[in-house]
């Protein structure tokens, strides 16, 4: 299923110190089970920096894609741009538009704010709500956290997450790791690994020390992957999340300069 929306925001892309695309007429393409993609009108893309290549790919839903390399002086990003010059009938809205691979350019902006990882989905909502519910985290029979003051995060398409004050989490079993990820809706995350009964559970806990201004309530709180621990809320064991991909697989497959969470 495809849905093409006109994005009301100004979106611009930079590479090697040059603005490669800058438009107030961007189309956001939504495709089932995929992240949204920005498509720019070709007239809003700096054509002097694009070199068409011989690469072509085929999509059964959209048609045959052509590719362009970005070249700014000695700086080159190969096959960083694609477009459907003659898209299939159901998606003719993107004819005359091109898209950019997120990690093959230097920076993305909505208006004057830099955005990270992927376009923000206007149909996605993230609510961080303070609660007095009793949340307990248990792993391998050992209680790792016990709190009556969680912040519960409800995010469209993602399992409910419980963010707990660090004082309510057993720090003796956690070791900070080098892993970092970024989320376009929450900011940059840091991680901890748990070691219990001689077994290591890597990067099972994360936190946003300085979340983006839209979601300040989770600053400095810790959250566990519900998929790997037992979560009790008001004494009731919560079912493990079942969604169309696991969070860990998804985040590992979509690493960026600062790996996403």
From TrEMBL:
InterPro entries: DUF427 (IPR007361), DUF427_sf (IPR038694). Coiled coil: none annotated. Residues 11-102, 135-227 form the DUF427 domain. Gene3D superfamilies: Domain of unknown function (DUF427). This is DUF427 domain-containing protein.
């Amino acid at each position: 299923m495809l849905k093409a929306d006109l994005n009301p925001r100004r979106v611009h892309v930079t590479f090697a110190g040059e603005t490669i695309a800058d438009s107030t007429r961007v189309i956001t393409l939504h495709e089932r089970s995929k992240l949204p993609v920005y498509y720019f009108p070709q007239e809003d893309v700096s054509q002097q920096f694009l070199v068409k290549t011989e690469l072509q790919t085929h999509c059964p839903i959209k048609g045959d894609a052509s590719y362009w390399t970005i070249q700014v002086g000695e700086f080159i990003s190969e096959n960083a741009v694609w477009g459907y010059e003659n898209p299939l009938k159901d998606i003719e809205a993107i004819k005359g538009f091109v898209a950019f691979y997120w990690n093959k350019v230097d920076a993305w902006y909505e208006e004057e704010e830099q955005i990270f990882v992927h376009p923000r989905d206007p149909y996605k909502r993230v609510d961080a709500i303070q609660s007095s519910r009793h949340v307990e985290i248990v792993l391998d029979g050992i209680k790792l956290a016990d709190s009556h003051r969680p912040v519960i995060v409800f995010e469209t398409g993602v399992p409910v997450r419980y963010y707990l004050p660090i004082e309510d989490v057993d720090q003796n079993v956690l070791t900070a790791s080098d892993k970092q990820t970024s989320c376009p809706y929450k900011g940059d995350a840091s991680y901890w690994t748990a070691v219990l009964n001689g077994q290591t559970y890597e990067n099972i806990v994360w936190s946003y020390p300085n979340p983006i201004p839209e979601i300040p309530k989770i600053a400095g709180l810790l959250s566990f992957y519900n998929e790997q621990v037992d979560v009790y809320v008001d004494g009731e064991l919560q079912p493990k999340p079942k969604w169309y991909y696991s969070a860990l697989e998804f985040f590992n497959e979509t690493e960026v300069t600062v790996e996403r969470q």
